[in-house]
């Protein structure tokens, strides 16, 4: 089986095969180029790994760059893995195994720290992915503040976004000011908000400032901007009934999360998605600003290894914290890729035995992770 990167010329064949593959089990499945206008196009075919069996296109996977800003101080090199397909005529011959191993190898060479996807644990768990993270999923209701006096919010106080460049630029600026976001060029802000089914509401007022909220169905997908303007949009939405929103975990959240929590009648904590630790060293280096705070007065050395051989050592010294790679045999703990994801991101740790109360494991982890709905691939 041959695997290579996609080319713009492959686009028609890939779109045909991915649609056929998904519609084999779901006849009404929408076309991927319609679902993801921001990521699926001839211009992004170089993100695809395509497998060919006896010269025929057998399957493919897209790796989409998803650099994440977390807690206002962590820049995490991440990727999203999506649009996975295997043509029905060639299933059961190891196509997905070959493609996933190629993706893992490519991401390691590129220095990607973590890869996120939404998928079946019984499939992707065999390759190192695990449900991890701890998003807060909120049920919002105006009745939480029924005793407070608020100025009524009306549709006449707002306007829908219709793609104007001036609005798009302000939205992109506001979005990238959030402590948790997925870094994306301005043109991709427009494309993300053009995903089907969305309505984007704007509030632009001299007193309240500028804000936007993207919604689909009864879900709040994205929000950014000035809080006074944002609350006006939120109260307009809640006047029509209950809504849902997903917000990042602590630490490092901002006033938007405080606003949403103030209207929350119920919440749950759920995994962010399925994550695979690709490069442990790159991951811990990205989180170094946060780890230095959590381990400020700790001194010593602690090694974390993966059962496939990668090992990283944290050293608490007088001047701070250092991170270096080293021999796996001398690490204090060795875990599978699946258990590494649980250790680093939660929502609960893997079995740690006598090391469960070690200061590094107890104080450093779990690390915050958040993958916004419009960053999914």
Features:
377 residues, alpha+beta, 7-stranded mixed β-sheet, 30% strand, globular
Topology:
Elements (H helix, E strand, L loop, with lengths): L1 E4 L5 H13 L8 H4 L12 E6 L2 E10 L2 E3 L3 E3 L1 E9 L8 H16 L3 E4 L3 H4 L5 E3 L2 E6 L18 E2 L4 H12 L4 E2 L3 H7 L6 E7 L3 E8 L2 E7 L1 H12 L4 E5 L7 H8 L1 E7 L2 E5 L2 H7 L1 H7 L5 E7 L4 E7 L2 E6 L7 E3 L1 H9 L13 H6 L13
Parallel strand pairs: 6-7, 14-15, 18-21
Antiparallel strand pairs: 1-2, 2-3, 3-6, 4-5, 4-11, 7-17, 8-17, 9-15, 9-16, 10-12, 12-13, 13-14, 18-19, 19-20
Helix pairs in contact: 5-6, 7-8
Q: Characterize the biggest β-sheet.
A: 7 strands, mixed
Overall form: globular
What is the overall pLDDT average? 94
Distance between the termini: 26 Å
How many alpha or pi helices? 12
Strand content: 25-35%
Please bin the fraction of helical residues.
25-40%
Q: What is the C-alpha radius of gyration, as a whole number of Å?
A: 22 Å
How would you classify the helix and strand content by structural class? alpha+beta
Uncertain segments are none
Q: Which sequence of strands runs across the widest sheet?
A: 1-2-3-6-7-17-8
Number-wise, the strands total 21
